[in-house]
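hey team, just a heads up i'm posting the complex here instead of the shared drive bc the drive is being weird again. everything in one block, sequence lines first with there labels, then the predicted structure for the whole assembly after. its two chains so it's a bit long, scroll down
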Amino acid sequence: MSYDAVLAETVGIRGHGDDLVEAYTARPMAPGPRGGVIVIHHMPGFDRATKEIVRRFAVTGYDAICVNLYSREAPGAEPDDAAATARAQGGVPDERFVGDARAAARWLRDLPTSNGRVGTIGYCSGGRQAFLTAVEVDVQAAVDCYGAFVVGRPPEGFPLQVAPLAHRVPEVAAPLLGLFGNEDAHPSPAQVDELEKLLQENGKSVEFHRYDGAGHAFFAVDRPAYRPEAAVDGWRHIEAFFATHLGA
Amino acid sequence: MCTYSTEKVEVERSSAKGPAGWFPLRTATVYYDHPVHAPDDHTVNIDFLNPDQGPGARVAVELSLDTARELIAALQTTVDRAKDH
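-- predicted structure starts here --
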């Protein structure tokens, strides 16, 4: 029998602009050193499914944290109300997100268990933000799960603040793992191909996997989009990728 | 929720009833995206909001495409009839 325990709790951290923002963390109750993982929640927000993902990384052996990116718009609100409020206000500005991601990386590295290595993973809108983290934040690995608008431009008149990031590809400073569904429209398979090509042309470390029969949000176990085969295989790649890049 | 598709409407002289009772509406957002609760991959979602009263001042619906079409027709019929009153 081996001891298997994690500590999971809500904490406050100082994010962008020194704002106090809510975050959820899970860490193994065992000595380090070990890597850290910044989980970036999907557009529906800082919800139960996201917290389960944070705990999963702790069980896998990492210190993990997820910042509630809607803390400022909707402190203390139900996740769906917070997501609706953030959407109505135009979404999360990139600059503010980057400030929060830097704070999360710092928080992880300040833990006594840290080995100094931090990775990130984001789902949906968080996939695009994981790419942005690989550009703007000191991380050693980044996982983009079906993030839209890394390449490709939102339609005219879009009220949300989601500018494409393709021009930042040369600045990507961490290996990137991408997991995508071939039935997804945002990002489309053609956009996934374009991003992969851009990364390769710029000499970046890139590993993309595409799944037939899966669309957007195929990791979401509480939604009809869930595709067990794609999700199980995707998790296998995530665990191998982080083991390679976040190990001691 | 990565279609990101969102239409926003300023709402005047209108009200909605939420968990804490009636409240005046300020905005509505309409978007085709993943629902929180309805049993489809994508639905037409409407959030009726009053940001002045916080994120909880919200009435939300998640409609199947067929239901949304029927609702559009019903709204159109009702609005057309209003001129006769």
